[in-house]
Structures are given as structure tokens and as C-alpha cells.
Amino acid sequence: MTIKVMIVDDQMMVREGFSVLLNAMPDIEVVGEAVNGREAVTKVAELRPDVVLMDIRMPELNGIEATREIAATHPEARVLVLTTFDLDEYVYQALRAGASGFLLKDASARQLAEGVRVVASGEALLAPTVTRRLINEFSKLAQAPRIASVAQLGELTERETEVLALIAQGLSNAEIASHLVVAESTIKTHVSRILVKLGLRDRTQAAVFAYEARLVTPG
């Protein structure tokens, strides 16, 4: 299957550069572009992309608000946040808004394509070392109430709690299965139950939840 991608950035050079790189991949097709968040929300409804590459700082409607609207109205579209450096002060808020991960704008063509594939598959693009540092720094800045509470953790079984902690450390389903010596299908079932019990959209929000609930601590 071809992965349909939409690029959202107010800089033409960035849009054109990413478009050329991604269209060179046999399994990826850029189906559209947008110059701001408001246009992105409209075009997602029209084009139905699988992945939206979303800049954060844009006029009219920033990437955080656009991500929040897309996550609410078109949850099938995975948002991959673009940032110029690994501690962009808004990335944490974008993850809470429903983004499935983030990618540096100076990523190589291989990293860009692989990031799109990872997010399109339903996984979270969360580099453990960067994510722990990011959440540690910017959870302090979040204006909205925390999505996590210690009480909610009590709804999980011991094994589900263990899986949630491993998700927060950036492990994939296959890596978690290997770590716990169980089948990958078993882990997928655990992840699905965790999301339902905690009322979360995807494993990215599950990772944020784990940090906010202090199930794991940034290192």
C-alpha cells in the first residue's frame, strides 16, 4: 500500500524539499501541501492523508491547534510534528494534542521516510533519549490539566502497567514482547486494553500519560 502524506509548513523550501524526498520513495506519495494550520485542517478533510507532517510555528493557526483539530475530527490521520531542534518548547504540547511523534527538520531522507512509515503503521515515533528529556522539561510548561492521574493507573493489571512503562521508554511492540518473553500479538492486546481503560488515543499519549503519572521518570 502507498502511504499518502500531506506536508504542512509555511516555508516553501521545506515543503518542496520534503516533497521531493518522499515522492522518491516507492511506497510514499505526497498528496498535498498546506501553508498554515487552518489550511491543513481543511485539506485533511479533502485529501484524507495517512500521515500529516506538521510544522508547529505557523500563521493563522499553529501546529498545536491544527493537530488538536485533526486528532478530534480525523483520528485516522497520524500527525508527525516537524521541529527545528530536539527541544522545541511546543513539541510536548503537540504530543498531548494528539501528535504521534516528532521529527527533526534536518533528518536525512532515510530517517524522514522511515518516520513516515513508523507513524503510518500505528507506532509512535519517540526517540527515548530525546523524549524523556523533552517531557521532563516541558511538562512543567503545559497549561492544560494533566491527562494522567495515579487513580487511573489502578485500573490496569500488573502486566498492563509493566507494558505501559515500556511504551514510555520508547520500545516497540516487538521489543516489549522480546523483553517480556511473550508473543507480539499478546502485547498488541495489552496495548489496546491500556488505551481503552485510560481513554487514550494512541501509544504516544500512553507514553505521555506514563510520565505524567510518574510511572516512569525522565533520565
Automatic annotation (TrEMBL):
Keyword DNA-binding belongs to the record: yes
Matching SMART domains: HTH_LUXR, REC
Post-translational modification 4-aspartylphosphate, affected residues: D55
MF term (GO), any: DNA binding
Protein name: Putative two-component system response regulator
One of the GO biological process terms: regulation of DNA-templated transcription
Organism of this sequence: Streptomyces clavuligerus
PROSITE patterns reported in the protein's UniProt record: HTH_LUXR_1, HTH_LUXR_2, RESPONSE_REGULATORY
Keywords, comma-separated and alphabetical: DNA-binding, Phosphoprotein, Transcription, Transcription regulation
InterPro entries attached to this UniProt entry: CheY-like_superfamily, NreC/VraR/RcsB-like_REC, Sig_transdc_resp-reg_C-effctor, Sig_transdc_resp-reg_receiver, Tscrpt_reg_LuxR_C, WalR-like
Gene3D superfamilies listed in its UniProt record: 3.40.50.2300
